[in-house]
Amino acid sequence: MTLDQTLPAATADDTIAQPAGAFDVERVLASLSLEEKASLLSGLDFWHTQPVERDGATVVPSVMVTDGPHGLRKQDESADHLGLGNSVPATCFPTAAALGSSWDTDLLRRVGEALGRETRANDVAVLLGPGVNIKRSPLCGRNFEYFSEDPVVAGDLATALVDGIQSLGVGTSLKHFAANNQEADRMRVSADVDERTLREIYLPAFERVVTRAQPWTVMCSYNKVNGVYASQHDWLLTTVLRDEWGFEGLVVSDWGAVRDRVAGVAAGLDLEMPSSGGRTDAEVVAAVRAGALDEALVDAAARRVLQLVARSLPALGAPGSFDVEAHHALAREAAAAGTVLLRNDPVDGPAGPAPLLPLRAPADVAVLGELARTPRYQGAGSSQVNPTRLDDALTALRAAAGADVPFAAGYTLDEGPDDDRSPEALVAEAVETARGAGTVLLFLGLPAAYESEGYDREHLDLPADQVALLRAVAAANPRVVVVLAGGSAISVSPWQDAAPALLTGWLGGQAGGSAVVDVLTGAVTPSGKLTETLPLRLEDTPAFGNFPGELGHVRYGEGVLVGYRWYDARRAEVAYPFGHGLSYTTFAYGDLVTRPGRDGDSVEVRFSVTNTGTRLGQEVAQIYVGDPVATVLRPPRELKAFAKVDLHPGESTTVALTLSRRDLSYFHPGLGRWVLEGGQFVIEVGASSRDLRLAAHVDVVGEDLTPPLTEWSTLEEWAEHPVGGPLLRGALEASGLPMAGAVFDPEFYPVIAGMPLLKVASFAGVKPEDLEALTEKARS
Ligand code: BGC
Q: How far is the CA of 382 from the centre of ligand 1 (A)?
């Protein structure tokens, strides 16, 4: 591999399966013995599929798969899946938490192409990512690897990434399917989730990527879903994934997720990773021989492994190379795009009150905080990349300012340089450094040990020494900009009164340090927006009390009220809402037009966005749908679409899109399908979920879900039924029964309205045959 040349653009031939003749899947499959087919269904080692060799010739070559998701982690000798062994240098792009905050599908596609190029240049067939699990709780230790608390953002961004990667002729692995929303007990816990919640919250991001981008592989999760291990979950792996969504690729286990291999094959788990040392291959063979497993199922799984090999071969035959500098520059662009400016309040200064950012005088700053020198730019575990370069904010800022701006560490980090001084001495030095500086740039964030694959966080707080540093520094110089690093929500409300400017670069990858400086100096206008709510307190979060579960079960008790859906439903205050992010310019929204689409089911939405400020900037316009009257509880608003627009000062653009039937529907668990219940919907357009600028009501015809009347329908259901109501009233009046008049008495009616008519009728003395006749009439 040569690092410094660019790879020729992928041709159509690179991305399609090898033509018949070169590696004919069906011919190869037909030639394999049962033992050989079974051997294909598990790995050779940690990272390779098993080859089939016969008489010294290779019948089926082995291919390599490797992590993923925001950079290639191709381990050299010491293979493990814990991120411990060394891996080849690769560009560490921003983590999904940062990429997600860009809301930029075009950018994600370009990052995907770069990832694909590096994967291909390293002779790897499949990059193990992206992860589209929903951020159910900010405590999940692996949230940095996931995009959002919302399935539409997660699904759309991951679709773009998968498209980009696969355009280079290499594959992806969409993971972790499904309901893997915590690290605690992840290999055993049962995620107990009702079907509506699965369908509306936890599955749609997977569904979007599968139906729109056809990832080469999907990786099942470790956990159980409603009591059944995902690795042998027939409903998930076959009914939903293949039969309903039309998935054409291969299902691979998460590393070590297999429990019962034979049950897994039957359920649709094609490939077990890593190697089982041949043990489970033998179990598969024995099960077929004993008549417990249909050989056709082994054939189906082996065929998918062969198809994966076949589609990998063209790129493996032409690996190419990649441009390290260009990829670093892209990583920097992406990290800047994902940086979220949370706050930029005016602060008194010589020329009157003004926001601190962008920096007017980058040389007149004090840089504080060890994280400015020792960046945290990725998370621990299987996604850990060995970066080709690493930028820190301090060096980047000095370069941008053209001056040796002063620095003080203020606190220590385990991963930073040794410093024997006491915490008090470090704070004192920082306070002295801050005093008199035009602006203080204070870098705070979560130390590496606070979040990782493998375990969850215990709280949302910054370390106490960092908060103490902020307080001491702000007392000496209130012109403080806090720059946060961390892979998930951090509680800011205890201290943000001391930070008039606040931004987060998340875990921004190897160029995160220079990217955040681009935003501070205004070289880049911030355009990132939160894809997860920043709550006031852990106790306010949706899964609190139900996370991470107990006694082997985690109950998804909050149902569909995840993320902003929860805070909005409860009208709860938050620190910063979903979708929030400031810019150095301003945007106005207007001209909202909504009208039912031609098919009667969809809604066409059109509005304008204008850059009303003085800088070139990008705005993420968000479209939310609410269905205030429905048979089931619906969140007040749900994101259904978004558009990132690029506008010069004074420039205006029109965003036009169509909300589909599905965008307006909910999943009806009783009917087992998506239902568009007719009525009035609210379409809101905004700069965040709580900065809604435009709203319109649209009447949609939809379905009438009124169930047919029976004797067991309640009195109220009868009374409100267009046919049954008048019939019932007439029948009661005509009956002459002493109690008939009381039924609709305004005081009495509310007490009995919820009773089945059968019971009301029997108390009132109605004869069963009369009720039967009435019911018949009402239904005819
Ligand atoms: C992780 C996966 C990863 C795999 C291989 C597992 O522990 O959950 O995301 O792709 O290891 O490293």
A: 5
- Listed residue (237, 85, 86) closest to 174, CA to CA: 237
Give the chain's largest Cα–Cα span: 98
Reading the block at residue 394, the tokens are 């301090």
User: What average pLDDT does the structure give for the chain?
Assistant: 95
Q: Give the number of the atom of ligand 1 that is nearest the alpha carbon of residue 68.
A: 10
Label residue 222 by pLDDT band (50, 70, 90): very high
Q: Please give the Cα distance from 736 to 691 (Å, whole number).
A: 59
From 255, 272, 273, mutation site for ligand 1 pocket: most ligand atoms within 8 A of C-beta: 255
Phi-psi label, residue 381: left if phi above 0, alpha if psi -120 to 50, beta otherwise: left
Residue nearest to atom 9 of ligand 1 (CA): 382
**Identity of residue 376:** R
81 Cα to the center of ligand 1, angstroms: 6
Distance 86 CA to ligand 1 centre (A): 16
Residue-wise pLDDT for 713-768, tens only, equals 999 999 999 999 999 999 999 988 888 888 999 999 999 999 999 999 998 888 99
Give nearest CA residue, ligand 1 atom 3. Answer: 382
- Which of 67, 104, 192, 254 is flagged as catalytic? 254
Taking CA atoms only, the protein residue closest to ligand 1 atom 4 is: 255
Return d(Cα 271, Cα 703) in angstroms, integer.
42
* Protein residue with its CA nearest to atom 12 in ligand 1: 81
Give the helix/strand (H/E) hosting 501. strand 501-504
Sequence-separated (6 or more) residues with CB below 8 Å from residue 49:
40, 43, 62, 63, 65, 271, 305, 308, 309
Residue list, ligand 1 pocket, CB within 6 Å? 67-68, 81, 128, 175, 254-255, 382
In tens, the pLDDT along 494-504 reads 999 999 999 99
Residue 85: per-residue pLDDT:
63
What pLDDT does residue 78 have?
61
Please say if 254 is a catalytic residue. yes
| Confidence tier at 4 by pLDDT (50, 70, 90) | very low
DSSP string, 557-584: TTTT--THHHHHHTT---SB-TT--B-S
User: Checking DSSP bridges between strand 57-60 and strand 52-54, what pairing results, if any?
Assistant: antiparallel
For residue 222, give the ligand 1 atom closest to its CA.
8
End-to-end CA distance of the chain: 76
Residue 185: pLDDT band with limits 50, 70, 90? very high
Q: What angle do CA 35, 38, 42 make, to 5 degrees?
A: 135
